[in-house]
Amino acid sequence: MACGEEYIDLFEKNRELIDEPCTPCLNREREKAFALFKKKGFPGKKEENWLHADVAKKFATDYGIDLGRKTRISSVKSGFTCDVPNLKTYRGYVVNDSFVNPGKQNRELPEGVILDSLNSFGEQHPEIIEKHYNRLAGKGDSIVQFNTTFVQDGIVLYIPKNTVIEETIQIVALLQTNIELLANRRMLIIMEDNSQASLLLCDHSATEKSSLSTEVVEVFLGCGASLDLYELEETAESNTRLSNLYVSQEAGSRFNHCNITLTNGFTRNYIEVSLEGEGAETNINGLAIGDKSQHIDNRTLIDHKVGHCTSNELYKYVLDDESTAVFAGKMLIRTNAQQTVSQQTNRNLCLTSCARMYAQPQLEIYADDVKCSHGSTVGQLDENTLFYMQQRGIPADEARHLLMYAFAGEVIENIKLEPLKERLHILVEKRFRGELNHCKACNLCKQ
Amino acid sequence: MENLLEIKNLHATIDGKEILKGINLTVKAGEVHAIMGPNGSGKSTLSNVLVGHPAYTVTEGEIIYKGKNLLELAPEDRSHEGLFLSFQYPVEIPGVSITNFMRAAVNAKRQYQGQEPMNATEFLKMMREKRAMVNLDSKLANRSVNEGFSGGEKKRNEIFQMAMLEPTLSILDETDSGLDIDALRIVAEGVNKLKRDDTSSIVITHYQRLLDYIKPDIVHILYNGRIVKTAGPELVMELEERGYDWIKNEN
Q1: What is chain A's mean pLDDT, rounded?
Q2: Buried b / exposed e across A208-240, counting CB within 10 Å, b at 16+?
Q3: Is B3 a member of any domain?
Q4: Maximum Cα interatomic distance, chain B, rounded to a whole number of Å
Q5: Chain A touched by B246 (CB under 8 Å)
Q6: Which of A66, A123, B8, B223 is the most buried (most CB within 10 A)?
C-alpha cells in the first residue's frame, strides 16, 4: 500500500469529529475523496507529475491538524495588516484553515455579492454549493483528494449576474500556531454571467515552525465573466505549499492569472484552466524567484475544449544558489477546438551552476486549424551585456541586479492593477538585492 | 602637454592566442589618434584590453593612465576615471530603459567621485540636453537599451552615452561601420561637439571616411599586433590610395 497510512488512520478514527462542523456537501464529497486517497496514497517520486518533488516526505513531519476546531480565532493577530500602498481593497483573512469574517469594513461589497465561509454559505445556499463544490477538483490527484478528505471549512466568493466589483478583494492567508501545523484550505469562486472582479490572494503562511498547507481553489466563470486573480506567496523556508487551482470558463469569459513566488520553502502549484465556451480568453503569468534550497514547482494545463478561444502563458524563473524549480506547462488543443490561438513562453535564468531548472513545455494539438506556439529557454546572464554595463560604470553586482530585475519585470508588467504593479516592482528589486530574506510579517505593505 | 595614456610594450592574449605583440603608444591630453589597419591586426583587442574586457589576458607590458596603473582597475572604475569605449557592436539590453541605464551609470560615477546621486529633475534635464546634442529621438530614450535599434541608432546611442558620461579618453571602435553617410555625419558631429581641449580620443577605423569628419592629429597603422607606422594625417590619404598591402609586404 502506498504511504499515507497514518493519515488514513487519523481520518478513520476521527471521522465524526471531522464531519461535525461541516455542511453536508463537504461531508459527502469527503467520503468519495477518502476512498480515492485510501486507494492511492501520496504520489510516489516516480510519478511523472511528481518528479523532482518528494511530497510524501513532506507529510512525514508530525504535524498537528486542528480537527476539533479548537483554535478559535476571533481576530487577526494584532498589528498584522497587508496594505498595498494606494490600493483600496475589501479584505478577508484565512487564519490556518478558517475564514475570518473581517467584520464591518469601510467599504461594502455590491448587493448580492457574498464573501463567506463555506459552511455558513452552505447552510444558506445549499443548492449553489451542491452544484459547484468539488465539481472541478473532484478528478484531481491524491493531494487534492487529501485536501477534500480533511478540509473542514473554506471561503466562498459568490458574485451574481452582471455585477461588477470595482474594488479589489484581498484575501490574506496566515498561520497562527505554536506547533508544526498542517492546514487544509479551500476556496470556491462562483462568478455568474457578465460579472467582473479582481482578487488578490496573499499567502503569508510563515512561522518559525514547519508547516504544510494544502489549498484547493475552484473558479467558475460564467458567460462573459471576467476575473483578474493575483496570487502572491511570501512564506518561509520551513513552509510547504501544495496548491491546486481549477478554472472553468464559459463562452466569452476572461481569466487573468498572475502567480508570484517571492519567498518560499517548498511549493507546488498546479493550475488547470478549462475553456468550455467559445471566445473565452485566458492569460496566465508566473514569476518564481528561488535561492538557497528553495523548490518551486509550477504545473499548468490549459485545456482548449472548444473553438475560437485564446490562451497566453508566460512563466519566468530566476534561480540562485542551490534552488530547484520545475515548469511543466501543457496546452491541450482538442479536436473541436478549431481556430484556437495559443501561446506559451517559459524563460529561466540559472544564476549559479548548482541551481537546477526542469522545463517541460508541452503542446498537444488534435485540431487542424489553429495557431499555436511555444518556447522555453534556460540560460545565464549574458557576459557581454554585463561587460557593456560595467564599461559604462555600472558595478558588476548592480549590473546583475538590473538584468535580473529587467528579466522578471516582463511578468510584473502584465499586472493591470497599477498600485500592485508598482509595489511588486519594488519588492522584486529588493528581493534580488537580498533585502527580503524571507517573510516575517508582510512585505507587501512595508515601505 | 601632459601624457594622458602611455602604453608600453603591451602583450595580450585571448584563449591562449597572442594578439597584441608589444604595443607602444602615448596619447597626450587634447590629442585625437587614429588607429588603422587591416582586419585581424588587433585593433579591437587593443580597445577591449584598455577597458578591461575579462576575456583578454595581459601577459606583458603596462598601461599608465592619468599616472595610474590602469590594469589594476576594475572595468567600472576605468569608466569612472573617464575611459569610454564606443562598442563596435553595442549590446541590446531588453527590459532596461535607457533612462534607468544611464541613471545607474551616472550615479555610480558620482558615488565614485564622492558626490550625491543626481536628483530626478536635474537628471532628466541632462538627458534632454545631451539627447539634443546627438539628435537622439526622445522615443528611443524611453525604450530598452538598443533593443530593436537600427545600426545607426545604436551608434548614435553610443555617442549619446558618451555625452552623458563626459569621458576624458574616448575610444571609438569602428563607429563608422554600418552607418550611411548621413548617420556617419551626425555621429561624427556629436563626437566633435564633445571634444574639449583636455579630452582625447582614439578612433579605430578601416576607412578614411570617418576621418574626414573627425580630424586626427596622429595616425597609427596596427598590423599583426604591433604599431608598424606612425605619422600625421597625411598617412590616411596614402592608405586610401595604396591600400594595406605595402604595409603587409614591409612587415
Answers
A1: 91
A2: ebbbbbbbbbbbbbbbbbbbbbbbbbbbbebbb
A3: no
A4: 58
A5: no
A6: B223
Domain that holds residue A87: 5-73+83-380
Q: Give the three cell numbers for residue A282.
A: 485566458
What is the least distance, in Å, from the CA of A387 to any CA of chain B? 7
Instruction: Give how far A353 is from chain B: nearest CA, Å.
Output: 19
Chain B partners within 8 Å of A383 (Cβ): 54
Asked whether the beta carbons of residue B108 and residue A385 sit closer than 8 angstroms, the reply is no
The ipTM estimated for the assembled molecules is: 0.96
Q: Which residue from A minimizes the CA distance to B112? A: A393
**Which of A345, A383, A394 best tests the B interface by mutation, with the highest count of B CBs <10 A?**
A394
pLDDT under 50: residue ranges of chain B: none
The helix-helix angle for A396-413 and A383-391 (nearest 10°) equals: 120
Please check whether residue B61 lies inside any domain of the structure.
no
Q: Binning pLDDT at 50, 70 and 90, where does residue A66 land?
A: confident
Look at residue A350 and tell me if it is in a domain.
yes
Are the beta carbons of A145 and A178 closer than 8 angstroms?
A: no
C-alpha grid cell, residue A379: 540560460
What pLDDT, in 10s, does the model give residues A145-162?
Answer: 999 999 999 999 999 999
What cell does A53 get?
A: 518533488
CATH number assigned to the domain comprising residue B193: 3.40.50.300
Q: Would you say residue B159 lies in a domain?
A: yes
Contacts of A363 (CB under 8 A, 6+ apart): A330, A331, A333, A342, A344, A372, A374
H or E segment to which residue B49 belongs? helix B43-51
State how many domains chain B has.
Answer: 1
A383 touches chain B (CB under 8 A): yes
Q: Find out whether A221 and A253 touch, Cβ atoms under 8 Å.
A: yes
Q: Grade residue A77 by pLDDT with cuts at 50, 70 and 90.
A: low
Q: How many residues does chain A have?
A: 447
What pLDDT, in 10s, does the model give residues B103-142?
999 999 999 999 999 999 999 999 999 998 888 888 887 8
**Does the CB of B99 have a partner CB in chain A at under 8 Å?**
no
Checking if the pLDDT of A74 tops 60, the result is no
Assess if residue B246 is contained within a domain: yes
- Assigned domain for A40 exists: yes
Residue A412 lies in a domain: no
Percent of chain A with pLDDT over 90: 77
Does A366 contact chain B (CB < 8 Å)? no
For A397, the closest chain B residue by CA position comes to: B76
Helical spans, DSSP H, in B134-233: 138-141, 151-165, 181-194, 209-213
Please give, rounded to a whole number of angstroms, the shortest distance from the CA of B97 to a CA of chain A: 9
Supply the pTM of this predicted model: 0.88
Q: Which of A386, A391, A432 to mutate to probe the B interface, most B CBs <10 Å? A: A391
For residue A347, give how far its alpha carbon lies from the nearest alpha carbon of chain B (Å): 13
Cβ pair A385:B105 closer than 8 A: no
Q: How many domains are contained in chain A?
A: 1
